[in-house]
Design a protein that fits this description.
Length: about 625
């Protein structure tokens, strides 16, 4: 069995099936060390490959779509959620100015193949097709997406269910007011494309035209171009099709109107004419009846301790970290000191000195013994957390030295990842001190986060983007846009489902880590959101803001749970327990949140649970 190189410039892309690197151009063959292209399905402006997910058991087939000029594409255009008639988007990657979408493979026969096999469609089949697809178009259009390439080969009848699935979303476009007002790229298959779309002015009604053109092709087995008299501006499909009622003919003709203003404007309008005697409008849902809630856990957070670095003056706290066992809080402050606190008692038991500038970042290794600190003085220091001993100082090259902005340690404790006030990200070998830097951002990197398995790195920058990297290969997987200002904080949920970012624009964005799809945008903070953390069970998101508050959110749904308002000035930093509440010893707070502020205090928070009952509103 062979596999294919995804490099569009490769002269000989076919390789042996077990190769890891292309035998011709040397490019890595698998995306994310997981998805391998087996054979091309379609070549063109974007190329499509049948592929396999080598990490699934059993190995499942999927589809890889490659696109040019990714930076010019709207990465949110396929944010359509989960729908049984749309292929599931499994992952999204970037490589060498190309984008790659990995999608669910739909086994089955498209409508063009069905027409060849079974012959022309009759009216009941066309009515069934319209009733099947028009609700899907309403679903897509309600999410402000125009498909732009509806045609028989993009409608596949899934083998398992015999239901139609709409594919070909690589040409889809988000329909904002500004986009609709200007001429865009002409995409789609000419035989099925509405006149306004051929002029680069696609609208929702353009998809209705394409669907009707598909219907007349299925009724006649003739190209829609051959069924239109351009001199008279009339359609002639009824003279060559099987008998069709006047009611359906009028519907199809109105969907095929050349002038957009004379055409149906929505899928709902077509459905209403298609089913005039329907008792229940298919788009109106009955309201949910009140139901008695079962007992639910209602989290209540209490400030256990307020720790002050210097009782005689305010010393701004820039960074905090919590040891894996939840027993030690480490803080870094403007007074150039690192302080170690007992999380159970709130007592300060050791102070570490050595930096000559403000301590801007601290990180603790998974073994609980390794402590790393970064400073405005441009140095990184490695400490033994148990003894407080300074083990080594890592320094950037003199001409590159800039204040440290973020630190993360790989789970094996072998590698440190750092960023400073530049666009570079640096990997340090903690045994040899050797360093390797790479870049992809266009402005300084403010924040870093590493997945719990140590494979995926997220970076946030003043360039307003979040970049997702495969740490082992240092390959850029995807770039996430959408923030209106510098990204201040980023984190990856322990279950690797979400990547969360916060920004100067006062928003928090929750996205699917694998696809980059936006799940929700959180907007309740009054000032920029400077810090965030995710609970060990991936259920709770903590955000800290310059508005002095910490907000707690249900991460999967984006629902605001509660607001903590004990700080009096901006919250600079927060850290959450890295172990689940069920595994914390009963003598320890359960689970713990730590926050640091410009007000000079560190607060240790404990969660308790009250059982409440009630009714849905």
């Amino acid at each position: 069995m062979s596999c294919y190189c995804l490099n569009p410039a490769c002269r000989k892309p076919e390789n042996s099936g077990d190769a890891n690197f292309c035998e011709t151009c040397g490019q890595r063959l698998k995306l994310d060390d997981r998805y391998r292209a087996l054979e091309p399905i379609h070549a063109g402006a974007g190329s499509t490959f049948l592929a396999v997910d080598e990490q699934s058991v059993p190995r499942l087939r999927c589809v890889i779509k490659r696109f040019q000029a990714l930076s010019n594409r709207d990465s949110t255009q396929l944010d359509l959620g989960q729908h049984p008639k749309i292929p599931q988007l499994l992952a999204y990657f970037e490589r060498n100015a190309y984008g790659y979408w990995v999608q669910e493979f739909i086994p089955g026969q498209d409508l063009a193949a069905q027409l060849t096999q079974d012959g022309v469609f009759e009216e009941p089949q066309i009515r069934e097709l319209l009733n099947d697809l028009l609700p899907l178009l309403k679903y897509i259009h309600d999410r402000q997406v125009i498909h732009r390439d509806i045609k028989p080969t993009n409608l596949i009848r899934r083998q398992r269910t015999d239901r139609l699935v709409l594919v070909g979303f690589d040409t889809a476009k988000r329909a904002t007011g500004s986009v609709l007002a200007k001429t865009g790229t002409v995409l789609g298959s000419a035989d099925y494309t509405a006149p306004e779309q051929l002029r680069g002015k696609a609208t929702f009604a353009s998809d209705l035209y394409s669907l009707a053109a598909t219907c007349v092709y299925l009724l006649t087995n003739l190209s829609p171009n051959d069924l239109f008299n351009s001199h008279e501006g009339t359609w002639m499909w009824r003279s060559v099709s099987l008998p069709v009622t006047d009611a359906l003919s009028k519907i199809l003709d109105k969907m095929l109107e050349g002038a957009v203003n004379l055409r149906y404007q929505s899928a709902e309008q077509v459905l209403q004419d298609l089913n005039p005697n329907a008792v229940v409008n298919p788009f109106v849902s009955l309201p949910d009846l009140p139901q008695t809630k079962p007992q639910v856990a209602c989290p209540v957070w209490t400030c256990l301790y307020t720790l002050t670095s210097d009782p005689d003056r305010i010393v701004e706290v820039n960074a905090v970290a919590l040891s894996p066992d939840g027993q030690i809080v480490v803080s870094g402050s403007d007074d150039r000191l690192i302080r170690l606190w007992d999380a159970e008692t709130g007592n300060l038991y050791q102070t570490l000195s050595g930096h000559t500038g403000s301590v801007t970042a601290v990180a603790i290794g998974a073994d609980g013994n390794l402590l790393i600190s970064g400073s405005w003085d441009t140095t990184i220091k490695q400490w033994n957390l148990a003894t407080g001993e300074l083990q080594q100082t890592l320094t950037e090259l003199p001409n590159l030295a800039k204040p440290i902005t973020a630190l993360v340690i790989t789970p094996d404790g072998q590698t440190l990842i750092s960023s400073n006030r530049s666009s570079e990200i640096t990997l340090w070998n903690l045994h040899t001190g050797q360093r390797h830097s790479f870049t992809g951002h266009t402005d300084q990197v403010n924040t870093l986060a590493l997945s719990q398995d140590g494979k995926i790195l997220a970076s946030g920058s003043a360039d307003s983007t979040v970049k997702i990297w495969h740490l082992g290969t240092r390959e850029l997987l995807r770039t996430l846009t959408g923030h209106g200002g510098a990204v201040y904080a980023v984190d990856i949920s322990p279950d690797r489902q979400f990547v969360v970012s916060s920004s100067w624009d006062r928003t928090v964005k929750v996205r699917n880590l694998n696809t980059g799809r936006l799940s929700c945008t959180l907007t309740h903070h009054a000032l920029p959101v400077s810090t965030l953390a995710i609970s060990a069970d991936s259920q709770t998101l903590f955000t800290g803001s310059r508005d002095t508050t910490i907000k707690l959110w249900d991460l999967p749904s984006g629902k605001l749970l509660t607001t903590l308002s004990d700080h009096t000035v901006a919250v600079n930093t927060i850290a959450a327990s890295t172990i689940a509440a069920s595994t914390i010893a009963s003598s320890l707070p359960s689970p713990t949140l730590v926050s640091g502020s410009r007000d000079g205090t560190i607060k240790i928070w404990q969660q308790s649970v009250l059982m409440q009952t009630g009714r849905n509103n």
